């Protein structure tokens, strides 16, 4: 059987039943269309000159709000009006049994110092809670940090003459034995999601640096990007630029992180299936609705750097604001036992979380309440008065 004629030949052949005038009209229309197409393809110098002369829209400017001053860090201080927020954010600690507070293999231990004038204790706690009872009356202003996990009395402090020894508490972990990613892992999530919380807890346990892209409800920037990359709006969504792996499903992400950047073990509170999800959901009730919905904002060109960890209620309050404003942030996880605490202490002379560094404005600051005010005043399109 002869092969069928090519479709292109049938499309361009003039039908035999059309009258000559119709054929001529069709030919003229085709010629006119071709002329218009050629004209459209030619550059319009008038339009080009008009477009080049039109002013470009001004670039967004990022600067701290008027009257902004960097606050001094104050340890364990709750600002007036922040008590209920901190209390609600703290509800997650007992519900999740402290998951996200400690790194993998966290193990504190005690040792003794024979020097009668030196008392050592872990650096995060107030001095009077760590030192022996016989020296609790010593003013905390006489305590000076010498390195992470260790404090000592300033030489001007007076110690009991009968003291011949004192104890110290230091911390160890397995983080130094684990593989570290060269590039930050990227995670798309939002604060109020219990499945996202599970992954954030694992990030704190493994002491990972993560670039978070917040995806609050009705967020215009990163939610559509997740749909484009993965094919569905589901959270959390992880991309590991070190291995090329991208995946949904919180349990799969947790297992992947444990196998790739841990020792393969998953903490018990992250391996209980439905019970894990239920308790992670209950952990959000103290701050119900916070960190879920989008607040109109200006997206900065560079992510904000934050030192924080999942188990801290103060860090949680700051992250709620980062998520609501859809601000990308590079998390330097620093749960108890993290080696990053020592590096931070050497750099700043004190450790306190949360702490942010904003490369878009040059601001570096402690204190969660002031950080929240700064973020809203700098990046919200309609900052509250």
From TrEMBL:
Residues 55-67 have a biased composition (Pro residues). Residues 183-265, 302-383 form the GST N-terminal domain. One of its GO terms (cellular component) is chloroplast. InterPro entries: GLR_AS, Glutathione_S-Trfase, Glutathione_S-Trfase_N, Thioredoxin-like_sf. Residues 15-24, 42-54 have a biased composition (Low complexity). Signal peptide: none annotated. Residues 1-24, 42-67 are annotated as: Disordered. This is GST N-terminal domain-containing protein.
């Amino acid at each position: 059987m002869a092969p069928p004629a090519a479709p292109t030949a049938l499309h361009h052949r003039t039908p035999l039943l059309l009258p000559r005038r119709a054929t001529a009209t069709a030919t003229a229309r085709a010629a006119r269309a071709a002329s218009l197409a050629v004209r459209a393809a030619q550059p319009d110098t008038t339009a080009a000159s008009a477009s080049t002369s039109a002013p470009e829209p001004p670039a967004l400017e990022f600067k701290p709000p008027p009257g902004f001053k960097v606050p001094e860090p104050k340890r364990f201080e709750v600002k007036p009006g922040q008590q209920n927020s901190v209390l609600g954010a703290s509800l997650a600690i007992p519900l999740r049994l402290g998951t996200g507070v400690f790194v993998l293999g966290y193990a504190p231990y005690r040792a003794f110092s024979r020097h009668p004038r030196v008392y050592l204790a872990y650096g995060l706690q107030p001095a009077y809670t760590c030192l022996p009872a016989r020296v609790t009356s010593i003013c905390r202003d006489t305590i000076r940090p010498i390195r992470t996990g260790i404090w000592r009395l300033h030489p001007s402090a007076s110690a009991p003459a009968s003291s011949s020894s004192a104890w110290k508490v230091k911390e160890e972990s397995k983080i130094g034995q684990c593989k570290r990613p060269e590039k930050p892992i990227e995670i798309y999530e939002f604060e109020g999601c219990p499945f996202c919380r599970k992954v954030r807890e694992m990030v704190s346990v493994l002491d990972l640096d993560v670039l978070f892209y917040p995806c609050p409800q009705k967020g215009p920037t990163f939610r559509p990007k997740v749909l484009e990359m993965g094919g569905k709006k589901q959270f959390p969504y992880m991309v590991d630029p070190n291995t090329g792996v991208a995946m949904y499903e919180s349990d799969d992400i947790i297992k992947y992180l444990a196998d790739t950047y841990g020792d393969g073990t998953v903490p018990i509170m992250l391996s209980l299936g439905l019970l894990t999800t239920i308790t992670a959901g209950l952990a959000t009730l103290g701050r119900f609705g916070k960190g879920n919905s989008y607040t109109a904002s200006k997206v900065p060109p560079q992510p904000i750097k934050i030192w924080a960890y999942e188990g801290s209620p103060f860090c949680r309050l700051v992250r709620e604001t980062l998520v609501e404003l859809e601000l990308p942030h590079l998390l330097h996880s620093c749960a108890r036992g993290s080696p990053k605490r020592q590096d931070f202490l050497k750099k700043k002379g004190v450790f306190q979380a949360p702490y942010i560094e904003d490369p878009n404005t040059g601001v570096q600051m402690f204190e969660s309440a002031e950080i929240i005010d700064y973020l809203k005043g700098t990046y919200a399109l309609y900052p509250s008065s």
